[in-house]
Amino acid sequence: MRGVELRLGTHDFRFDCALPPGRIIAVTGPSGSGKSTFLNLLAGFETPDRGHIRLAGQDVTGLHPSERPVSLVFQDNNLFAHLDLFTNIGLGIHPSLKLSAGDRERISQALARVGLAGYEKRLPGTLSGGERQRTAFARALVRDKPILLLDEPFAALDPGLRAGMAELLTALHRETGNTVLLVSHDPAEVRRLADHAVFIESGAIRLSAPIKDFLTQGGIPALTTFLQH
To answer: If you classify domain 2-69+146-228 with CATH, what class do you get?
Structure first.
């Protein structure tokens, strides 16, 4: 992001950063600080009033979300309750479900990769919370984009499921080498997963640093408070 500015209601956001590719990057900060807005700008759900956004070497400032090199996984997993898992994942490849034989094979492979082999005809309502999030990861896998945006994807899961999903995320990242941006309120999760971290406060980036430097930074009181939780 270069000189990105956005006003939403009475809130002003200003973002400048250059983030390392091929890393897991934690995005954290107090509630209401602008973390989700930061992700929404990258995804294209918000358009900046000023400035430019480049993703994977491409200026995407004016591009529709569908044209950007990103996949997204949200806390609520955004699955259609009346559609089976095969169809939910297929929508990630083509909104009209014009799927080739190769596409259909990719869907089954993605489900197997996240531990849900044979679940193609299951409905989301028959799954546990962890299984629904695994389905969301499978949908991101078939989209095969270089950047994965995660907005607190584990927040609604119990500690055991959170640990399992974190392990899955790390394994998929090693396999694909993609860039992952993970919004998190959990300092333990940041320590465990991130190679790099961004701290946002009052609508601006206060620190963007490799995880070792991020964890030892002592000059930002709000960050110190976060890390002590």
So the answer is: alpha beta
